[in-house]
Structures are given as C-alpha cells and as structure tokens.
Design brief:
By secondary structure, the chain is an alpha/beta fold. Helix content is about 25%, strand content about 15%. Strand 8 (about 275-285) and strand 9 form a beta hairpin. Helix 2 (about 65-80) packs parallel to helix 3 (about 145-170) and helix 3 (about 145-170) packs antiparallel against helix 7. The protein has one domain (about 15-265): Alkaline Phosphatase, subunit A (3-Layer(aba) Sandwich). Strands 1, 2, 3 and 4 form a four-stranded parallel beta sheet that branches. A four-stranded antiparallel beta sheet has the order 7-8-9-12, with no helix packed on it. Strands 5-6 form a two-stranded antiparallel ribbon.
Length: about 325
C-alpha cells in the first residue's frame, strides 16, 4: 500500500487472504482484535477476518485504558474455561500512546487536537515540569520544544503502564511461558526529522520480542532486521510453510546464534501520508541512500509546539536535492 487504509485516497491491501489473521485462522487459531488497527478502514473490520473484536464501540481505538480492560477480561475468560479445549490465540493490542492526541479537551483549554502526546489521560501538558527535559539532540533547546518533549514522555509513561498491565495479566493467568509477545510500532516519533521521513528516527522503531523459540534473556541483538521478518518468524515457530511468497526472513536463526546477520541491507519507503512525498531508501550497517521525488522538503508538517517554533525558520520545503547519502558512522 502507498498510504494508510481508510484515508483518501482509499488505499487497501490487494488481497486480504494474504493477511496474517486469515493465515492463522486457517491454522486453527482464535484471532482477536483489541484497540486500534491500520490495515483496513475503521468502520468495517470484516475484511481482516478476526473472529472476535473485543471493543465494538464506534470510538474503538481511542480510549486505550478501556482497551486494556477488555484484554484483561479476555485472559480471565480463558482462565475460567481452562478445562475446555481452547484454541491458541492471536491477539493484537493496538495502543496509540504516545501518538499525538486527536481528542480535544476544551475544559482544559486544549482546543487543538494535537496539543498533547496522549489520547487517554486528560492531563494538561502545560502543567508538566519541562525544566529538566532535554529536547531531542537534532532540535533546538527551547522552552516550547522542551514542553512538547515532556508531553511525549508522559505519553510514553502511560504506554508503559498499559503494556505492564497486559504482561501482568499473561503472567497472572498462567499464559506467560507459552505466549510470544511482540512489542513494536508502525513509525517513529511524531517530531520533525522523525515520523514522515526516512531518517533512522523515522524508520528505526522498537522491536522487543519475548517468549518461545529462544526469545529470552534480555539480550540486545544489533544486526539489521525488518518488520517483514515477523510473519516468517511466526510461521517457523508454528512449523508451517507460509501460504504466500514472503520477502522477510525468520528471526530464529539470528536469535539462536546460528547466523551473524540476516540482511546485508534493509529497505524503506514513503509515498503518501495526508499528501504526497515519495521517498525510497536503502540502509546498510554503515550507509543510507535516500532517493527523493521532490528536490525540496520535508513536505509533511508535524504537530504540536515544535512545529510552531521551527517552521518560521525554514525547516520545511527547503532545498535538499533528489539524492541523499549518509555515512552513519560520522553522524549522530
């Protein structure tokens, strides 16, 4: 796809039978969705093929504390029915923290939908203590940007709390040892030089995995990997052959120390996100090459106080050229 589903123009997956959910349905899994998803439109989730949707409210995917409540009840339900023959489960928990908020709170003086980095806790970002909050190293050290970063950190704290509740429920109901937990996200932080770019801050997202197959020990593994590697990893753990040609590789040989690396290079792309800015990149351990359709940019504006500070100084739509080459050992 070239852009988010459910947005104009209406991008969509070419064949939903290729989706991991449909594949796991055929493997005898119970497939369940909790929270937000970005693989089909928000009004009709049926193309994805989930057998259960834990939250059927129209505003699902916005109130993540309730999302976690649904997940905890799902685990409790399985525990109560543990004497029955239960299918193994696949349960994506879509939590939008610390994404820029899209809920206006006029009673707090927050009239802009992106005044804070939390969609659930209705704190006032102006009351956060940002005096000791360092900005990201590529941004100016200014009070407005510190406040923006402090709000982002509050969203991270809330996300950490939600994830902790899910992990605790897995442990409490005896599911910890047999459950593969994959913790990742779909883009970098919503600050300039990160999301909606192909910088490492935009594409170098978190990937933390715990569970069967050797994903233990609290290790940090440095070689390049990709989201494309998750599908074949799940297939190998299940001992099944993927139904479709996959470009990724299973992470298991890397995790088990059988190979020193999986990829000599990884690829990244961006085409459309509320507007067109086609970018393509190839990244090795040391170098990154970015191809730009437009010689000026970045074109996509970000949100919050940081935008208001840096836009007047010409951060956006400046001459960059059609090709960028980076030596990643010589830049921070």
């Amino acid at each position: 796809m070239f852009g988010l589903t459910g947005r104009a123009p209406s991008w969509r997956i070419d064949d939903y039978q290729k989706h991991l959910v449909q594949f796991l349905n055929r493997q005898g899994y119970e497939t369940v969705l909790a929270g937000v998803q970005h693989e089909t439109g928000h009004d009709d989730l049926s193309p994805l093929g989930y057998q259960r949707i834990l939250d059927t409210r129209p505003e699902r995917g916005q109130f993540y504390e309730e999302t976690v409540d649904h997940v905890q009840r799902f685990f409790a339900e399985r525990f109560m029915n543990r004497d029955k023959k239960l299918k193994p489960f696949f349960l994506p928990v879509g939590i939008g923290e610390p994404h820029n908020a899209n809920l206006q709170r006029p009673e707090l003086g927050l009239f802009n939908a992106v005044d804070k980095y939390s969609k659930t806790r209705y704190y006032d970002p102006r009351k956060l203590d940002a005096r000791y909050t360092a900005p990201f190293p590529w941004l100016p050290d200014l009070p407005e940007i510190r406040r923006d970063v402090a709000s982002f950190h509050e969203g991270v704290r809330i996300m950490d709390e939600y994830v902790g509740r899910v992990l605790y429920a897995l442990k409490h109901y005896g599911l910890e040892e047999d459950t593969l937990v994959i913790f990742t996200t779909d883009h970098g932080i919503d600050f300039p030089h990160a999301k909606m770019t192909l910088t490492d801050q935009g594409i170098g997202v978190m990937l933390i995995i715990r569970g069967p197959g050797g994903f233990v020990g609290g290790r940090v593994i440095e070689p390049l990997v990709s989201h494309l590697d998750i599908y074949p990893t799940i297939c190998e753990l299940l001992g099944v052959t993927p139904a479709h040609r996959l470009e990724g590789k299973s992470l298991l040989p890397l995790v088990r120390g059988a190979v020193p690396s999986l990829h000599d290079e990884v690829f990244a792309e961006q085409t459309y996100h509320g507007g067109a800015e086609p970018l393509r990149a190839i990244r090795t351990e040391r170098y990154k090459l970015v191809l730009r359709h437009f010689p000026t940019g970045p074109r996509h504006r970000h949100h919050g106080e940081t935008l208001k500070v840096i836009e007047p100084f010409g951060w956006y739509d400046r001459p960059i050229g059609n090709v960028e080459l980076f030596d990643l050992l010589t830049i921070s």
